[in-house]
């Protein structure tokens, strides 16, 4: 068993360098061209900048859904725009509700995101949705010190996830004080169901839960907790949920109950620097590369009540890198990968190909607007 994990340290690095990049097909390449520069000039009115006194969106009910994307460094990663277009069109096509899309990122990237949003609305002929932009340059200032320290504690490699940005959900309840709940989505998804059904799952949270997460569907945490399993009596860390273990979480889809994050003493304690450091030492958890999902996976090892177990069908991860590298035991791999429920959201993580229907949306011509 140990041998699989040694081999997968390398795979982990590969995974990190691949992760947020949707595969480049012809459609994507045309979109990449379109979304490299903002169509509209950077009008400041588009920003919600100061959120303190913003109006409250009607997010308590199922008829209005708030969705959050973190969207940044689009200039360095031309495939982000096409990935977002695919995610948004699929989501809007099946939505029975009005959606507010909140984009959090550098000023340049969120303006590109807004262009993508408007194109997706046009492509799906939908109405009633709105877009809100937040600039991280200013919003993150008060949390820079905290996030910088978290990053230095939880970044074993020099991959993409070394940036503070990948830990942003730890403070998102402070960044969006005007929202009560939000669904955070990655930009490499294909949404095959009505997002209102996802929103409805907030009602299933146990009283102490602050967020909903699906399990990580590759043996990432089997490997990350191998030292802890070897040294401690706890045989459950990183082991498949199907045999009673703590499999770890994936953050491609997160239901965030921001209000509970703001008021939960358990969450506040679990995420303060001193507790994170102590927990990390206790679990010998130093092999980490995946940003916030490493932290929630670690916290979930002992404070599971903070997390609502989102059914795997809402974040069906398609990456099979641990298996295709041919080093990981296939049967063990399948214990992590299996998800028998009908898929609601496909997640093309590590560049995995999405279902064919994900590539069939109508596209605007790349050089017109
Ligand atoms: C778009 O929606 C409008 C109004 O709902 C409708 O009249 C029109 O036929 C739709 N167009 C397409 C291409 O679906
Ligand atoms: C969506 O918003 C429009 C107004 O923009 C409103 O007329 C409509 O009833 C809303 N739909 C739902 C499902 O709430
Ligand atoms: C989503 O929308 C597509 C296209 O309109 C439709 O074929 C499909 O049945 C919808 N799926 C669900 C789960 O509503
Ligand atoms: C904070 O969390 C740690 C780790 O779970 C736990 O040992 C400690 O008792 C908690 N402290 C408080 C005040 O809840």
UniProtKB/TrEMBL annotation:
Keyword terms: Signal
Pfam families: Glyco_transf_8
Signal peptide range: 1-24
InterPro entries: Glyco_trans_8, Nucleotide-diphossugar_trans, XXLT1
PANTHER family in alphabetical order: XYLOSIDE XYLOSYLTRANSFERASE 1
The name this protein goes by in its record: Xyloside xylosyltransferase 1-like
Gene, per the UniProt record: LOC106811283
């Amino acid at each position: 068993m140990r041998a699989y994990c040694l081999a997968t340290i390398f795979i982990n690095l590969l995974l990190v360098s691949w992760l947020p990049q949707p595969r480049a097909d012809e459609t994507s390449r045309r979109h990449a061209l379109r979304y490299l520069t903002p169509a509209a000039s950077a009008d400041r009115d588009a920003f919600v900048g100061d959120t303190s006194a913003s109006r409250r969106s009607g997010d308590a009910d199922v008829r209005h859904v708030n969705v959050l994307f973190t969207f940044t460094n689009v200039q360095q990663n031309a495939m982000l725009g096409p990935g977002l277009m695919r995610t948004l069109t699929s989501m809007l096509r099946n939505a029975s509700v009005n959606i507010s899309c909140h984009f959090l990122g550098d000023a340049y990237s969120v303006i590109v995101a807004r262009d993508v949003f408007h194109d997706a609305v046009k492509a799906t002929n939908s109405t009633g949705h709105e877009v809100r932009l937040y600039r991280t340059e200013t919003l993150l200032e008060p949390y820079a010190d905290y996030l910088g320290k978290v990053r230095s504690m939880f970044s074993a490699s020099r991959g993409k996830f070394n940036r503070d940005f990948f830990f942003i959900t730890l403070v998102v309840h402070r960044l969006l004080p005007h929202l009560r709940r939000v669904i955070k989505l990655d930009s490499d998804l294909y949404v095959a169901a009505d997002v209102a059904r996802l929103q409805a799952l907030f009602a299933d949270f146990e009283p102490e839960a602050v967020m909903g997460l699906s399990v990580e569907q590759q043996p990432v945490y089997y490997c990350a907790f191998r030292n802890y399993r070897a040294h401690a009596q706890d045989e459950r860390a990183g082991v498949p949920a199907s045999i009673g273990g703590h499999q770890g979480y994936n953050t491609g889809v997160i239901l965030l109950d921001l209000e509970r994050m703001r008021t939960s003493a358990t969450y506040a304690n679990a995420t303060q620097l001193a507790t994170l450091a102590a927990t990390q030492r206790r679990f010998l958890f130093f092999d980490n590369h995946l940003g916030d999902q490493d932290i929630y996976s670690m916290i979930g090892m002992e404070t599971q009540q903070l997390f609502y177990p989102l059914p795997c069908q809402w974040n069906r991860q398609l990456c099979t890198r641990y298996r295709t590298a041919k080093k990981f035991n296939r049967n063990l791999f399948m214990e992590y990968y299996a998800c028998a429920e009908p898929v609601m959201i496909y997640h093309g993580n590590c560049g995995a190909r999405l279902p064919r229907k994900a590539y069939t949306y109508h596209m605007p011509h790349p050089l017109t607007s």
